[in-house]
């Protein structure tokens, strides 16, 4: 049976670190919101059958985006945390042999090449895009004093998309939340459930817009991508 690939975009966050007065996914770059750029990547890929976007309750911005009315896009109500939003989207999946491709709403520079590499994974452990850590990494105490310098040779910085069998991911997140475990991304939920996701080396320009200075960098990468 051929698998159904369903993209999940958790977009219920408020983006407090941006200090922008609105959630960062609705900020504009090159005439489109960040969320529109992100959704366009998924809508333009032939392997993705549909997209589920988790938005906050009473979100005043999502009704203004026509792209969210696309026939392949479904809206669900997100939760207070990323894990809760992703679980809400997973609960809306009823296809057999479904795989969930979870991607940050504020990560608009993903390339088709990286996406295709990730979609080659087809075992129960799933996979994530990631980049090897290149900076020196310090471990500190609670007051900001360096304790030690970490060995970075086996350290990776997680990105998205993250790609897992939908049922396995749903169970992992549900059980993790029930046990009050710390779930920072989908891979961490799968790891807590005993799986060992693959690392697929991605591009460093697949940035997540988190701070005000990231907007200019994302605009640069998107401009270069369009050209």
TrEMBL record:
Official protein name in the record: 2-C-methyl-D-erythritol 4-phosphate cytidylyltransferase
Pfam families in the record: IspD
Listed GO MF terms: 2-C-methyl-D-erythritol 4-phosphate cytidylyltransferase activity
InterPro entries: IspD, IspD/TarI, IspD/TarI_cytidylyltransf_bact, Nucleotide-diphossugar_trans
Known EC number: 2.7.7.60
Catalytic activity field: 2-C-methyl-D-erythritol 4-phosphate + CTP + H(+) = 4-CDP-2-C-methyl-D-erythritol + diphosphate
Keywords: Isoprene biosynthesis, Nucleotidyltransferase, Transferase
Similarity annotation: Belongs to the IspD/TarI cytidylyltransferase family. IspD subfamily.
Pathway: Isoprenoid biosynthesis; isopentenyl diphosphate biosynthesis via DXP pathway; isopentenyl diphosphate from 1-deoxy-D-xylulose 5-phosphate: step 2/6
Site features described as Positions MEP for the nucleophilic attack, chain residue numbers: 152, 208
The protein's enzyme class: transferase
Site (Transition state stabilizer): 17, 24
Record flagged with keyword Nucleotidyltransferase: yes
GO biological process: isopentenyl diphosphate biosynthetic process, methylerythritol 4-phosphate pathway
Domain of life: Bacteria
UniProt organism field: Rodentibacter ratti
Function: Catalyzes the formation of 4-diphosphocytidyl-2-C-methyl-D-erythritol from CTP and 2-C-methyl-D-erythritol 4-phosphate (MEP).
């Amino acid at each position: 049976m051929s698998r159904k690939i369903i993209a999940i975009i958790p977009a219920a966050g408020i983006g407090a670190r941006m200090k922008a007065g609105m959630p960062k996914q609705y900020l504009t770059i090159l005439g489109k919101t960040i969320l529109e750029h992100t959704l366009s990547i998924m809508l333009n890929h032939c392997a993705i059958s549909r997209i589920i976007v988790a938005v906050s309750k009473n979100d005043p911005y999502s009704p203004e985006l026509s792209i969210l009315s696309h026939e392949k896009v479904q809206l669900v109500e997100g939760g207070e945390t990323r894990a809760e939003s992703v679980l809400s989207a997973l609960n809306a999946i009823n296809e057999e042999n479904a795989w969930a491709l979870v991607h940050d709403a504020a990560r608009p520079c993903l390339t088709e090449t990286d996406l295709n590499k990730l979609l080659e994974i087809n075992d129960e452990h799933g996979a994530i895009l990631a980049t090897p850590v290149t900076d020196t990494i310090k471990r500190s105490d609670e007051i900001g004093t360096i304790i030690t310098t970490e060995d970075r040779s086996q350290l990776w910085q997680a990105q998205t998309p993250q790609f897992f069998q939908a049922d396995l991911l749903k169970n992992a997140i549900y059980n993790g939340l029930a046990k009050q475990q710390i779930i920072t991304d989908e891979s961490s939920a799968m790891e807590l459930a005993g799986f060992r996701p693959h690392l697929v080396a991605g591009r460093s320009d697949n940035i997540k817009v988190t701070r005000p200075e990231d907007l200019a960098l994302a605009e640069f990468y998107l401009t270069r991508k369009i050209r």
